[in-house]
Design the sequence.
């Protein structure tokens, strides 16, 4: 029987991922779903991307959802002129994400360092107060050199294949959250489409709703039991 395995934030921990994959011993027909945030923070984002690319070439089905770190990375790659096709995603998903990329506290510099890009260690690119990130972004982008920022095309293509969400086995998978008001809808597909249309960014960023029960008219009814309705 094929297995469906969902994995949370990996954040550049390639050795941990390698050990997990060793334990899982994935086989043809299995599905590996990542809920996003493959990169940043850890030391080897490039290694994480490479491992998942290698698995994707096998008969294992790989599904990667957009996390906020994928969103920031893709937005910044587009800013510096990379060949990224983001047409499958609502534009609201990327609102100010390139600005957020340059906030040192987000540790996105760790992703660039794993690719051997020297700009990761340039303090002028990252050291600024988060209270005024837009001004810093405008200053930095005036002196951007694409060669200092670009990731390999095969890795960019892989990231462009990420999904905003996934529905399978009576579960809805997103990286962050979906507004409770939408979860009280009778159809999960309509709920996600509504969230994407109104503010797609919330699927990757907003955690304000964690632990909140959907405000459904019928207290015990949620959208998930009707995935196939």
Sequence:
């Amino acid at each position: 029987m094929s297995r469906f395995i969902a994995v949370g934030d990996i954040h550049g921990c390639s050795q941990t991922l390698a050990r997990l994959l060793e334990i899982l011993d994935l086989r043809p027909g299995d599905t590996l779903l990542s809920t996003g945030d493959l990169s940043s923070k850890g030391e080897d984002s490039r290694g994480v991307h490479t491992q998942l690319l290698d698995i994707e070439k096998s008969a294992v089905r790989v599904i990667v959802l957009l996390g906020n770190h994928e969103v920031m990375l893709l937005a910044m790659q587009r800013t510096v002129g990379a060949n990224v096709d983001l047409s499958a995603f609502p534009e609201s998903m990327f609102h100010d994400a390139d600005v957020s990329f340059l906030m040192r506290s987000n540790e996105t510099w760790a992703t660039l360092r794993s690719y051997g890009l020297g700009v990761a260690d340039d303090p002028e690119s990252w050291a600024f107060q988060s209270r005024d990130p837009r001004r810093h972004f405008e200053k930095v982008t005036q002196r951007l050199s694409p060669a200092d920022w670009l990731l390999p095309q095969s890795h960019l293509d892989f990231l462009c294949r990420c999904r905003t969400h996934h529905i399978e086995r009576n579960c809805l998978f997103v990286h962050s959250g979906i507004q409770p008001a939408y979860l009280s809808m009778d159809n999960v597909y309509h709920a996600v489409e509504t969230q994407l249309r109104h503010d797609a960014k919330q699927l990757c960023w907003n955690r304000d709703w964690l632990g909140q029960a959907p405000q459904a008219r019928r207290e015990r009814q949620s959208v998930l039991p009707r995935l196939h309705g």
